Amino acid sequence: MGTDTRTLEALVDREYKWGFVTEIDADAAPKGLNEDIIRLISTKKNEPEFMLEWRLKAYGYWSKLEKEQAEPKWANIKYGPIDYQDIVYYSAPKSKKDGPKSLDEVDPEILRAYEKLGIPLLEQERLAGVAVDAVFDSVSVATTFKEKLAELGIIFCSFSEAVQGYPELVQKYLGSVVPYTDNFFASLNSAVFTDGSFVYVPKGVRCPMELLTYFRINAAETGQFERTLIIADEGAYVSYLEGCTAPIRDKNQLHAAVVELITHDNAEIKYSTVQNWYPGDPETGKGGIYNFVTKRGKCAGVNSKISWTQVETGSAITWKYPSVILQGDNSVGEFYSVALTNHWQQADTGTKMIHIGKNTRSTIIAKGISAGHGQNTYRGQVKMLKSAVAARNYTQCDSLLIGDKCGAHTFPYIEVKNSTARMEHEASTSKIGDDQLFYLQQRGLPKEDAVSMIINGFCKQVFRKLPMEFAVEAQKLLSVSLEGSVG
Amino acid sequence: MLEIKNLHVKVENHEILKGVNLKVNAGEVHSIMGPNGSGKSTLAQVLARRETFQVTQGEVLFNGKDLLAMKPEEAACEGLFMAFQYPVEISGISNAYFLRAALNAIRKYRGQEEMDAMDFLPFYKEKMKLLDVDERFMTRSVNEGSSGGEKKRNEILQMALLEPKLAILDETDSGLDIDALRIVANGVNAMRSPDRATIVVTHYQRLLNYIVPDFVHVLVDGRIAKSGGKELALALEEKGYAWVEAEGHTAAVAV
Question: Do strands A197-201 and A227-232 pair parallel, antiparallel, or not at all (unpaired)?
Fold first, then answer.
């Protein structure tokens, strides 16, 4: 028993593989947050008046919250106070006046950074059918396949470009799912976000390729505040992938993104994330990313569907609840999640399914893996309003523990106001047992492979919801996140 | 093939094996019998290199190599297979995937080329037929939701596929009905060959009607108290373990 526990500990004790910093000149604002900084961001980005007004309203609301209580305190996570005046809110890579028009114009340093991460930004990607909108330090540096998508009427661009090119769409939908008053971090994001992605799929169009964005945090002490807005018009379909890694830092980095999804009648959005930000020093937990994200979708139309799939392996703290508002009758919401906490990582993650329309259905499959001193919390809310006739929910949350210093916690909130609604909740907690490891090893598998196999089996229900290439990547990521020197 | 010399094993300061000596040659089938708590399963698991046990004295040679220096996966790759008394469940991993991974880990260790799915499947199906296992079984998760009998049959199926040099069956007969017992025994018998040895650990003589051993050893209180041919199992069935225990006691006193 003793030896096995120790070996397991050695196994989960590995260092962040992708720690490196890219040297590029950043055009950065001074530290701190006030109305002038917000005006600066808006001016730098050459935004129309409505954007500035919205940002200022958000800032006003946020300042009030900050004075009253600062961050929300209900989450099962611990961290020191965040000094919001010690953050740089705007930093752009120095580039040619109007930004790069093609890959040739992109800073070679940036391209090299992407290459180290294995990001498929190059031409061969077209063969794989992937279009990339890369966000590097808050400003998009390259967008590919835009023309091909444009033929179908699909808009896939950086948020900045959308503000310039499609202000009426931005004005109509921005904040329609996550208002700037939604929560502390969403307010902050609304005030200071610098870029992100924008997708609009017009009526009746099925997006023929997976849209893919990689985020990467660079430039020391730069908070990242992305904003993503995806709209699927009537009968449209789009699958969107988001993946990220970040370089090693010795200071905590705040990340507060907002993602809004909207589906109209008969439309579907599939949103997949693989997140691998720097989790902090393995020994002390210092220096990792704080990931406070608000992700929400609204099934506005009848028969529409929104599906979230996430594999969360990085960050010191993850605070994230990709949710679905099921407003249209017969609409469907799904949440498939794998969250891994190792070393000193903390995750408080889950989902909210708000059933408003008739016959709305939701499925929640959440898998939490804890190793080292990791603390993993599932927090989920299923709410069925009076109008949600015959609504259904199925929830399954499973926890897997590795070693004896980690923790798993489950907080389900259930609120049902319609007697015809049905909901099911299943939960389990298990440990990777010596018995399982010995069994697999006795069949010839090295211990590391045995652990990988058990974990992949545990996560299978979620992995099979990921697009093929992403699923392979996610499996690798989990093994890498847990591998180490086997004694 | 296997030589155990004066093996002493402890678990949490409790001595379980107190000097076991045993020699098994290729082509032989040995049965180890004994009352509950005599150390039969401990012996099987120590040979399979379970780390829970602490070897305090003795030596074990497996094909001339120091078995006690090997990790469980090394012993497996060297050709040692143990059919578990309580096979574990691996959720989300199909039998076919698991077995191909195991087979390839062993092939890799031996410097052989890994087997791809196209070559593996016909091979797997052939072995399934031998053990009367439905093909749908391939896609089911390892041992998940299986009955006790199905799990045991799966153990023998794995053995047939991995083709070990030394197979150790740890109470494979427990929990089996008579039909399953016959299928399992047929599977084991089909694998008898001049270059393979088998150790059958069992509490009851019943299994030995089907898998006829060349030698029977009775383990009592951490030592082999009596050895003999297959007729020893029948004598035990008739007289009970108390007979050997009493004899062993007398022998110990005499020494």
Answer: parallel
Residue A80 CB neighbours (<10 A): 6
Mean pLDDT across the stretch A307-328? 92
Q: Where are the beta strands (DSSP E) in A202-315?
A: 210-216, 227-232, 237-245, 253-255, 258-263, 268-276, 289-299, 305-312
Residues of A in contact with B90 (CB under 8 A): 436, 439-440, 453-454, 457
Place of tokens 């060297």: B78
**Crossing angle (nearest 10°) for helices B148-162 and B95-109:** 30
Q: Is the Cβ pair B141, A457 closer than 8 Å?
A: yes
User: Of A462, A436, A431, which Cα lies nearest the Cα of A450?
Assistant: A436
- Tell me the chain A residues in contact with residue B92 when contact means C-beta distances shorter than 8 Å: 456-461
Contact between A436 and B98 using a beta-carbon 8 Å cutoff = no
- Please write the tens of the pLDDT for every residue from B134-160: 888 888 999 998 888 889 989 999 999
**pLDDT, tens only, A329-361:** 999 999 999 998 888 888 899 999 999 999 999
| Kind and range of the H or E run holding A377 | strand A375-384
pLDDT higher than threshold 70 for residue A94: no
Q: What's the CA dihedral at B94, B98, B101, B104 to 10 degrees?
A: -120
Asked if the structure places residue A47 within a domain, the reply is no
Who's near A65: CB < 8 A, 6+ residues apart? Answer: A184, A187
The pLDDT of residue A470 is 73
User: Does the distance separating the beta carbons of B92 and A459 come in below 8 Å?
Assistant: yes
Q: What strand order describes the sheet that includes B14-24?
A: B14-24, B2-11, B54-62, B65-66
What range does the domain containing A337 cover? 2-25+90-177+193-482
Tell me the two tokens of residue B76: 């497996």
- pTM comes to 0.80
Segments making up each domain of chain B, as ranges = 2-254
B54–A contact, CB cutoff 8 A: no
> What is the DSSP code (8-state) at residue B137?
G
How does pLDDT run across A437-482, given as a tens digit for each residue? 999 999 999 988 898 899 889 998 898 888 776 777 777 777 766 6
* Residue A468 resides in a domain: yes
In a domain, A208, yes or no: yes
Residue A72, token pair as written in the block: 């929300």
Number of domains in chain A: 1
Rounded to whole angstroms, the Cα distance separating B44 from B163 reads 18
Identify residue B42 by its one-letter amino acid code.
Answer: T
Cα separation, B229 vs B215, whole angstroms: 5
Query: How buried is residue A182: exposed, middle or buried, by Cβ count under 10 Å (0-12/13-18/19+)?
Result: middle
Q: Please state the rounded mean pLDDT for residues B77-100.
A: 94
| % of chain A residues with pLDDT over 90 | 44
Q: Note the CATH architecture for domain B2-254.
A: 3-Layer(aba) Sandwich (3.40)
User: In chain B, what residues touch A4 (CB-CB under 8 Å)?
Assistant: 51-52
> For chain B, how many residues are written?
255
Could you tell me if the ipTM is greater than 0.90? yes
* Beta strands in A186-263, from DSSP E residues, in sequence order: 197-201, 210-216, 227-232, 237-245, 253-255, 258-263
Nearest CB neighbour to A436, from listed B82, B88, B105: B88
**Mode of pairing for the β-strands spanning A407-416 and B2-11:** unpaired
